[in-house]
Amino acid sequence: DTAVSQTPKYLVTQMGNDKSIKCEQNLGHDTMYWYKQDSKKFLKIMFSYNNKELIINETVPNRFSPKSPDKAHLNLHINSLELGDSAVYFCASSTTRGGAHGELFFGEGSRLTVL
Amino acid sequence: GQSLEQPSEVTAVEGAIVQINCTYQTSGFYGLSWYQQHDGGAPTFLSYNALDGLEETGRFSSFLSRSDSYGYLLLQELQMKDSASYFCAVRDNAGNMLTFGGGTRLMVKP
User: Fold this and answer.
1) Would you call B95 exposed, middle or buried from its count of C-beta atoms within 10 A (0-12, 13-18, 19+)?
2) What is the rounded CA–CA span in Å between residue A3 and residue B27?
């Protein structure tokens, strides 16, 4: 049983295309996140949702649009992909905002390559 | 805003002890977490310190000094499988999110 699952795991696409990444957690958590990890392994938060409500938007370009249809799902849609969007995108969840005792549960990541 | 500093790379031999330091500057502070990430894998939670002192979990321990804005992760009896990247992370003032340091790549040699 995968606690936090993301699809697809790998995504290769052309500049200018639109793509989506889906995330689901079966842990019953209230809070979900999207993090971006670049080639230097720096992990940067993009968005956070708590019970379907957006609570964090870290100055991400508006080409990125998250959607949370329910508290178990958080999807990420990216329009007009650029080369700089190439990265690994991690979904995560936690029992409370910021993680109870600092603990986040991460998915396996979605590696996006923009050509 | 938040900023965290940790060494980019550390090398040690099997069986040894290694300490990975983390200093942070935050507008507020709830606690310091540590995560492990193997190449191609997901970050996984190791430990959390909200109060000063040492927390021990098996071969791994984590320390926090709030007055010094400093913490460290101590790994004992190093094994080859400990080769990974280790990230410190702070929970922000509002407690809404974790901000991660740049990560320390640990290489364990035979």
Assistant:
1) middle
2) 32
Query: Cα(B58)–Cα(A104) distance, rounded to whole angstroms?
Result: 20
Query: Cα–Cα distance between A77 and A21 in angstroms, integer?
Result: 6
| Residues from chain A contacting residue B97 (CB–CB below 8 Å) | 33, 45, 48, 56, 97-98
Task: Judge: B95–A98 Cβ closer than 8 Å, yes or no.
Answer: yes
- Alpha-carbon gap, residue B70 to B108, rounded angstroms: 24
Structure confidence at residue B6 (pLDDT): 97
Q: How far is A22 from A27, CA to CA, in rounded Å?
A: 16
Cα gap A26→B47, rounded to integer Å? 22
Residue A34: is its pLDDT beyond 70?
yes
